[in-house]
Amino acid sequence: MKKTYHGSCHCGAVRFEADIDLADGIRKCNCSFCWKLGYRKSFAAYEAVRVTDGRDRMREYKATPSNWPEGDINHYMCPNCGANFLSRGYLDFMGGNFWAVNVACLDDVTEEELAAAPIVYEDGKRDRQDKRPEITGYL
Fold this sequence. Notes:
Blueprint: E1 3-8, E2 15-20, E3 26-29, H1 32-37, E4 40-45, E5 49-53, E6 59-61, E7 73-77, E8 84-91, E9 96-102, H2 111-116, E10 119-122
Parallel strand pairs: 3-10
Antiparallel strand pairs: 1-2, 2-5, 3-4, 4-9, 6-7, 7-8, 8-9
């Protein structure tokens, strides 16, 4: 069941709301972005995320070079504290545009909710986000 969670960067300069269903899983990906940042995400429909404060403070990061087409993947962070809280993407199997919400930035999620969420592994290293990598123990 979808629930509205409230989130923020570490210093609180940027705040957002996200309608997500943690029963869909917390995704652990081995792509270079997720791996290097320890990003653990839950997917949300594009219209299900609202930046409620600090949109003008958000900084955008796009990897260069990238295998993704221009405009297909954007990461957002706070320039003050460095927290990466949202990524926007486009995948056909996701129904088009979506948000990846960093669950570590959800302020009102409980430990019980996080512990109950299934883990979904993504092989982003090989651009197979809909597949599980052969080795997942390090994720």
